[in-house]
Amino acid sequence: MSPSTIDIHPEDTLLEENEERTMIDPNSKEDPKFKELIKVLIDWINDVLVEERIIVKQLEEDLYDGQVLQKLLEKLADRKLNVAEVTQSEIGQKQKLQTVLETVHDLLRPHGWTIKWNVDSIHGKNLISILHLLVALAMHFRAPIRLPEHVSVQVVVVRKREGLLQTAHVTEELTTTTEMMMGRFERDAFDTLFDHAPDKLNVVKKSLITFVNKHLNKLNLEVTELETQFADGVYLVLLMGLLEDYFVPLHNFYLTPESSDQKVHNVSFAFELMQDGGLKKPKARPEDVVNLDLKSTLRVLYNLFTKYKNVE
Questions:
Q1: Which residues of the chain have pLDDT under 50?
Q2: Which of 100, 121, 169, 285 is most buried, taking the most CB atoms under 10 A from its CB?
Q3: Where are the domains of the chain?
Q4: The model's pTM
């Protein structure tokens, strides 16, 4: 008999016949990417709810009763839910969760999301269910955050069969790639470059740096890092003015953006200027550029390069 590597708590053994319970393998909880996913989501919730003076510290303990999820959804969807404000009883909490989750399902189902949570799992403080829900909300509402990709955890499933406890290990995938979670499966040349030709990627980056500096140098500005220097949108806006030969009024954008919202505003505004100049709407999202997603930034700059490479 080899001892089990999983500590099964006494309450987890009090199962009815054929009932099952899941718990995360303790080793998975220590995985840096898993910890980062939780931290990014907690920071995002607190950022969204800053005006509500709500501070989330632990997802399972702070979200199970539906109160924080209600406020989060109301803020993200910009609508008021018809639920009681404060509910102490378990029945009241579950009724609130039911309303909140039905609203979430109405939003997500048309976009093909697989629903991996329910009232009982959220109220039962099942961290896996809570994470699936939050990842789906963050993606659906295009949260200005960068979720770590390819996060998986080992889950122990305990099931009671004929009076005996049986345990099984399964791998639960919490995130894939940002593009797959966004549902954008069309691959392009940059996907191929990133996957198969990192040496050629450097050649493309150098060409784009030369191109943007040829114009930004007129304002005594210099780009050395494509990943970071376009993330606040300022250089993108100024570059569009230089390429199209007009002055962009300073009240149209934030010259020294401080918040993520201001940066997203700047990049969105730059995208509008690009479309005004006859370019197609960029495939990238403004949030991706703000979140330092190099592939998205390169796509945007390459579009500019293709149209304006002969502009002096």
A1: 1-5, 7, 10-12, 184-186
A2: 100
A3: 30-147+176-183, 189-309
A4: 0.63
